[in-house]
Structure prediction request, 503 residues.
Amino acid sequence: MTEESAPDDGESGLTVVTDGSGDADDEGVVRRVRFSGGPARSFLSSLAADERIFQADLAVDRAHTVMLAEQGIIADDVAGEILTALDAIEVDGHGSLPDGEDVHEAIETAVIERVGADGGKMHTARSRNDEVAACIRYRLREDVLEALETTLALRESLVDVADTHRETTMPGYTHLQPAQPTTVAHWALAYEGAVRRDTERLLEAYARINESPLGGAAFAGTTFDIDRERTADLLGFDSVVENSMDASSSRDFLLETVQALSTHATTLSGLAEDVIIFANRSFVELSDDYSSTSSIMPQKKNPDTLELVRAVAGDAAGSVQGLTTTLKGLPRAYNRDLQRATTHAWETVDAVTEASEVAAGAVATADWNEETLAAEAGEGFSTATGVADLLAANGLPFRTAHELVAIAAENGADYDALEAASQEVLGDSLEAHVDPDAVEDALDPAESVASRDSQGGPAPKAVDAQLESAREALATDEDVLADTTDALETARDALRSEVNGYV
Ligand code: ARG
Prediction:
């Protein structure tokens, strides 16, 4: 037996053990000892975690093989054998792969087991470095699309709540203290705006994920006459990452995605916290589907799902930190640290997508207690600003009006208190400055809301305009998402029909 190092990317530890006859095609004689690592074997291996990119790797292998054949780099019949083997490997599944350092090596070994040594031609003009980068991007696209879907569902829930509760007054808070009356619609659309920006950030991240690194090889390109645009096209990527070193070793697309997901998780955590507080004050009742009970206290109905939604922001922020720390100071080109960068993205996209979906469901099914909300809307003299605005609109300097109302706030917070404060601050009756009916209106939470009709304000009229832009933006993003999903589907079908031309 002799050991020959095969001309791979020089990094995979590929060793071909033959019987010395030089007949590498002789199956049963060729034995590939591909995975060393001794005691560190399992430490090195990403094979288990790579189940996530098993389908992606098959697609990348197929596109690369088709391109190699089209370019005349490998013969059509060899391409056909490799592609047939890949189909069989897909049917057998990730669990049936031979041992390997990762899914790329294991699939290649499985191809060689089926095809013979010619199966090794699949790895011509590429490296696992560009291969894994292509696989991550391929799979992450699908995951980010799912995350995007949940942001749209949440926006729809919020828009529906706003539509139903245009006139449901509620207390609005700053510093968690009653501040000014607002409406449930205005509150819901505040979160809709934030989630809309979360959608935009994820779409921007998606655009940069959707570029093909394939053909970058180890980092330094290849002597073979490859067609990178073609593999990009076959895999549904919009363009190629041009510089081959950048293609094979950059992971800023992961960081950007995890950051966008973390930002969304932070939005969700605020939403969850609000609803938890509102539930605590009986402003809203969560559906049983999104609540939990106590194992000992029979009367309890707890907002556990939203507490978990709130907690996911912590996990996501941790992933941003972990990923940033892994990438910080990594030299170009490929380093194995990158294997551990990827898992942060999978964990985050799964957790945030689930949290987003649950938040959408909890919001959509919650019951707002209109009576309690209306009764509480004026708590803590929350109409005070409106009264001060009214006095200012009637000619008083706003600062004087503010002082007058502040004194009234200390002494009963009603018309009589305002009258007493007027005597104290202005030296005459309130009536001399403003119509008493208008003051009574300003003291009424619903009237107070209705009067704040500036652009973006809570007055139902102003909310209608916000509802319209929310609906328009939602429809636009739904179209973008549908087109993006279709483009991937079309690329998948096109690759399949190209493959069918060989198998
Ligand atoms: N499993 C590896 C990863 O996730 C694949 C690339 C290995 N490349 C190498 N040169 N060892 O990054």
User: Anything to note?
Assistant: The pocket of arginine is lined by residues 11, 46, 102, 128-129, 132, 334, 336, 338-339, 342 (CB under 6 Å). The chain is about 60% helix and 5% strand. Residues 1-32 have pLDDT under 50 and may be disordered.
